[in-house]
Amino acid sequence: MIVILHPLSCQMIADATKTDLLAAFVGHVEVVQVSAESAAAWPGSSLAWDDLLIVIFDASPFPNAGIRFISEYQSQRGEDAMVLPVAIDPASQKPPKPAEGIKALFYDTTASGERGRLANRTGGMLGLRVQGRNTKIFVSYRGVDGSEIAEQVNTHLRTLGHRTFLDQAKEFDGEPTILPGSPVQKEIDDALDTANLVLLIDTPKAPESLWIKHEIDTADGLLLPILPICFRDDADPKKATRFRQLLALQRWVMVRTPPAGPAPLSSDQLDQIVEEAEVYLCEIFRRKCRVPYIVKKEFVSRGFEWAVLSQKLLMYSSSRTGGRLTTRILNHCSIFDVIYEPAIKRFHSFLSGAGHVNHSLFIYDGELLPDHEVLEFAKGIPDSVVILHHQELAALIDSNFTMLGAA
User: Fold this and answer.
1) Which of 114, 230, 231, 247 is spaced 20 to 30 Å from 98 by Cα?
2) What pLDDT, in 10s, does the model give residues 209-238?
3) How far separated are the first and last CA of the chain, in Å rounded?
4) Measured between alpha carbons, how far is 83 from 111 in angstroms, rounded to an integer?
5) Domain that holds residue 118
6) CA-based angle 60:120:72, to the nearest 5?
7) Please, are residues 203 and 145 in contact by the beta-carbon 8 Å criterion?
8) What's the alpha-carbon Rg for the chain, to the nearest Å?
């Protein structure tokens, strides 16, 4: 549940915010407005993973009832509390006292709507909580030329209320190998297992790091999105990540630096990095909500039973019995807006332990690709995995899966 706490003086903006959020998340998250003048208990009957408190404030003193409401919310949830202060007045951007340690987001009236900064920040924060994972952004870097940048990005994220993981003790790149089961590797693997996004500080020395390679491979196995922050000086004409395996995602943030190397990042550069990360997280959150909903609806409406095999990995089973025969389909709803090969490999790996299935469907979102492009890509994957867009699913089920032979 998203609760919008606001004084009466901010009523119109609170109304607009609720409308924007409902449009952004297509009704998958409940949004409730609470007046700061009369705020009492949290509206929900119990705590939920998507509880987020948006505090809208202006230059006027924040009502005492609203202050108590914020304090109680933070006390009940401890470090799991998600609070997003939103400032209306550019001259008064310090949040009410219980939330004063969190940097406020300025409400930009020119960027409202479901694609606005407020919706993206909200989606980003919820995207870190969805699927039962922790609220962590994992910051990956090479210490020899990326530690100062990583620390600056990490600090900025934390001032905005994000929880992060920055391993300041992992710089052992001089070691010839990464020792399986070592304390450092276990700490990294545990942190990745509870993260929702990897921010990769893509500096010139980063591709030489065995640790970063390990982190990318582990993240791919966990279906974690990776966003490279590419630092290149003006003399470098390239405008992409240095990591070949991430080029397929076609997603990175370019930061131009002086030839002498990255200086301390400006506030504009930090804001650019955070905004891109939150937009990405927001898209993933929407996809995690929307695509499984669409796929389940298509199967259930045709008499199939639906079961969740792994919510974290978005693996689902659908089955239907006719006479003595049961048809069982294993479905993976991809979070990426492209057909990402590591995700398909992870799906195939999951299949090996899933028991007997009649069909296995890798269902992608984003742009609907022409058949010849999908077939070209499918040459490199196991025959047991079928790639299709969720828009094609209804026709496939109605054909009793005979269309698979044509594909």
Assistant:
1) 114
2) 988 999 999 999 999 999 999 999 888 888
3) 42
4) 21
5) 2-127
6) 50
7) yes
8) 23
CA distance 326 to 307: 15
Predicted local distance difference test score (pLDDT) of residue 372: 82
- Tally: H helices and E strands in the chain: 11, 15
- Mean pLDDT score of the chain, rounded to an integer? 84
CA 244 → CA 82, 94, 142, distances in Å?
35, 43, 17
Per-residue tokens: 336: 């990426």
Same-domain status, 137 and 261: yes
Final residue belonging to a domain, choices 265, 295, 318: 265
Q: What is the DSSP letter of 338?
A: S
For position 43, which CATH number holds? 3.40.50
Q: What is the mean pLDDT of residues 163-187?
A: 66
Question: Rounded to an integer, what distance in angstroms lies between the CA atom of residue 223 and that of residue 304?
Answer: 27
Q: Has residue 276 been placed in a domain?
A: no
Q: What is the DSSP letter of 8?
A: G
Tokens 């209306």 -> residue: 88
Specify burial of residue 254 (Cβ count, 10 A radius: 0-12, 13-18, 19+): middle
> pTM (2 decimals)?
0.71
197, β-bridge pairs: 137
**Range list of H helices, 25-112:** 64-77
Q: In the sheet that 163-165 helps form, which strands lie side by side, from edge to edge?
A: 163-165, 136-140, 197-202, 226-233, 253-257
Q: What percent of the chain has pLDDT over 90?
A: 43
Match 């930061």 to its residue by tokens. Answer: 255
Same domain, 143 and 260: yes
Residue type, 153: V
